[in-house]
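Board notes (copied after class):
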Amino acid sequence: MIMLFRLKYFAAILFAVILLGTLFLNSAWPARHIDQGDETVADKKSGLLWQKGDSYHELKKGMNWYQALEYVDLKNAEKFAGHDDWRLPTIKELKGLYVSSRPIKSKDGEKIGLPEPFRHGGSYYLWTNTERGLENAWYFGLGFKEEYFNLKDLGDLDQGVKMVRGKLNKN
């Protein structure tokens, strides 16, 4: 009888700890990336506003670095999501967006490190604003947090654009 009472008491305590712990965890770490409902995602930690999709969602093809700059210029002329100051992100900004534990898939079905609000995936490789000399620019691989550079006029790996706006972080 005493053993049954102790077991019930232990179960009640365990239930209370789990319930309170869940409530505490959910309120202690609010979502960092918030879908704004206008095809953008706000990053509360960095203060940046990201394009929710990427150029591949719209164009269904990759692009070279020069085409990436033209894509951003076009989106700024259209005032995408009400803004005209979109740009290519830095490598540091893309690294800050990367989340290794997310099962988001690229356009080719490969796992990429994007937070939940970017659940529709997109390009595996994204161009950055970072140049390497006169003829090369850096791009970022979302699969394993990879950094590469390529000739600016090549888009041979279907590189895409995920625009960003907000403070500009240096590499």
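Comment from the instructor: The CA atoms of residues 112 and 143 lie 4 Å apart. The mean pLDDT is 86.
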